[in-house]
């Protein structure tokens, strides 16, 4: 694992040193940081979003995590999706430093989505484990998500794969996640 500077150093997280920065390979939206394992289908995506308020999620972290998972399923054109667990933050929110805004989270969600990739028929869709962490910064009207995606069943071959490596990568990235510069977030108050 190596500490990676995301968004020009505004956020840091531990990500395997071998993971490739997808922006070196293809265009990535400015709101995302995408990393790919060089030898598997494992990917890690960090995204900065405007604070979601749909479906009661403005004041409810669990509802927000569920809404974002559902939005991802829609974006992935998932044939099906299911949530297996949602864990709310165990500690009371507190400022991240003197004069800094409160960061709520992480709210951690795990689920699967059935996704047909590479123009394969639906009968050959992959089952993808999605692990999602959500941090909310209300004073800046921002949400930050960190997602690890890992196909646990390959639809084309039916091969089933363990998820230990994906869970390890996710857990370490979430544990080490830190906002260093709140200037990254355009919305809300200055402090």
What does this 3D model show about the protein?
This protein is mostly beta strands and 191 residues long. The protein has a single domain (2-91, 101-181), classed as Mog1/PsbP, alpha/beta/alpha sandwich (Protein Transport Mog1p, Chain A). The protein has 2 helices and 10 strands. The chain has helices at residues 61-75, 164-176, and strands at 2-6, 11-15, 20-21, 32-36, 43-50, 80-87, 104-115, 126-137, 142-153, 178-179. A 7-stranded antiparallel sheet has the order 3-4-5-9-8-7-6, sandwiched between helices. The protein has a 3-stranded antiparallel sheet with strand order 1-2-10. It is globular. The model has no long low-confidence stretch (mean pLDDT 91).
Give the arrangement of secondary structure elements.
Blueprint: E1 2-6, E2 11-15, E3 20-21, E4 32-36, E5 43-50, H1 61-75, E6 80-87, E7 104-115, E8 126-137, E9 142-153, H2 164-176, E10 178-179
Summarize the structure.
Keywords: Protein transport, Transport. With 191 residues, the protein is mostly beta strands.
Structural class, from helix and strand content?
mainly beta
Instruction: Give helix and strand order, one letter per element, not per position.
Output: EEEEEHEEEEHE
Secondary structure tally, helices: 2
Count of the separate structural domains: 1
The stretches of 5 or more residues where confidence is low (pLDDT under 50) are none
Helix percent band? 10-25%
CATH topology: Protein Transport Mog1p, Chain A
First CA to last CA: what distance?
Answer: 32 Å
Strand tally: 10
CATH class: Alpha Beta
Biggest β-sheet description: 7 strands, antiparallel
CATH superfamily membership, which one? Mog1/PsbP, alpha/beta/alpha sandwich
Silhouette = globular
């Amino acid at each position: 694992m190596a500490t990676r500077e995301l968004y020009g150093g505004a956020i840091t997280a531990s990500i395997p040193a071998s993971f490739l920065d997808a922006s070196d390979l293809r265009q990535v939206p400015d709101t995302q940081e995408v990393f790919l394992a060089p030898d598997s289908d494992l990917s890690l995506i960090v995204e900065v979003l405007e604070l979601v308020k749909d479906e009661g999620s403005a004041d409810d972290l669990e509802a927000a995590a569920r809404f974002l998972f559902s939005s991802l399923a829609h974006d992935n054109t998932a044939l099906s999706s299911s949530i297996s667990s949602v864990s709310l933050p165990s500690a009371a929110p507190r400022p991240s430093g003197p004069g800094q805004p409160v960061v709520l989270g992480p709210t951690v969600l795990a689920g699967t989505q059935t996704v047909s990739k590479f123009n394969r028929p639906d009968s050959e869709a992959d089952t993808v484990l999605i692990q999602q962490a959500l941090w909310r910064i209300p004073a800046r009207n921002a949400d930050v998500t960190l997602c690890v995606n890992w196909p646990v069943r390959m639809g084309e071959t039916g091969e089933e794969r363990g998820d230990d490596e994906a869970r390890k990568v996710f857990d370490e990235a979430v544990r080490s996640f830190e906002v260093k510069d709140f200037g990254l977030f355009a919305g809300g108050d200055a402090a």
